[in-house]
Design a protein that fits this description.
The protein has about 250 residues and is of the alpha/beta class. The protein has a single domain, classed as 3-Layer(aba) Sandwich (Rossmann fold). Helix content is about 30%, strand content about 20%. The protein has 6 helices and 9 strands. The chain has a 6-stranded parallel beta sheet, covered by helices on one side. A 3-stranded antiparallel beta sheet has the order 4-7-6. Strand 6 and strand 7 form a beta hairpin. Helix 1 packs across helix 2. The chain binds 6-phosphogluconic acid. 6-phosphogluconic acid binds next to loops.
């Protein structure tokens, strides 16, 4: 399977969430029929809240018992903290669907040592995907967002994690927020069968134009997500796509 890139522009954020849910369900059902399970790394931040709420409301009968949820990144906070991506997903989705608790693999970021939390999550991935030595997991779907600075997951511009080529998960010091974040690394993102970015809002329009239509040196982190053999899908609302020429 060669890599491909698709850009879809939706009228409003609600149309974006509906399109993202349709893609989630399509990829999930294909994965389950192909290999009896659907593995997904969920995005944090605020944009995907609308997708998770849509899935919780419209897709209660989705085969959640064959769906395994991971996180693309997590803040270095307890699971009940306002900043926790797990808390956001739990409130918008997990509490509202029937998914076995064992199918949800959160980052135990309450661990005082961010590096230990990253190592523990990496071990969970290795065990779940039955990885040997230097293999990388291939998620059926990785959902990502993008910040106005071009970061994705917790891969921020000029941060150490961007250089990581062998670890699956690292604790990345993010100067901008003066905190560690635990994040999947670029090799994991680029081993996915499909990566779908969900980007909405006019505050992202400048960066969307740069990421999708220009080449920066060094490239923005979001530009470095190019699945080696997988599909790359950008789901944008019209506000985020406002400066695109194509
Ligand atoms: C996080 C995400 C991060 C997010 C972007 C966009 O933990 O916050 O992993 O990469 O996707 O910052 O965030 P918004 O969707 O809130 O704009």
């Amino acid at each position: 399977m060669s890599s491909s890139r698709t850009i879809q522009v939706l009228h409003t954020p609600d149309h974006l969430f509906a399109a993202a849910a349709e893609e989630f369900v399509r990829v999930g059902k294909d994965a389950i029929s192909a290999h009896r399970r659907f593995t997904v790394a969920l995005s944090g931040g605020s944009t995907p809240r609308g997708l998770y709420a849509f899935l919780a409301k419209q897709h209660k009968k989705f085969p959640w018992d064959q769906t395994f949820l991971f996180f693309g990144d997590e803040r270095h906070v307890p699971a009940d903290h306002d900043e926790s991506n797990y808390r956001m997903v739990n409130e918008t989705l997990l509490k509202k669907i029937r998914i076995p608790a064992g199918n949800v693999h959160r980052v135990k970021a309450e661990n005082r040592d961010a590096h230990a939390a990253a190592a523990e999550y990496e071990e969970d991935l290795r065990r779940f995907f039955e990885l040997k030595n230097d293999d990388f997991p291939s998620f059926d779907l990785i959902l990502l967002g993008m910040g106005p600075d071009g970061h994705t997951a917790s891969l921020f511009p000029d941060s150490q994690a961007l250089k990581e080529q062998s670890r699956l998960v690292v604790a990345n010091w993010v100067e901008k927020v003066k905190a560690y974040r635990i994040t999947l690394t670029l090799p994991v993102l680029n081993h996915a069968a499909e990566v779908a970015f969900l980007v909405a809002g006019d505050d992202k329009a400048d960066m969307i134009e740069q990421v999708l239509e220009a080449s920066a040196t060094p490239p923005f982190p979001a530009q470095r997500v190019r699945p080696t053999e997988g599909r790359l899908l950008w789901l944008l609302d019209e506000a985020a796509a406002a400066r695109l020429t194509c």
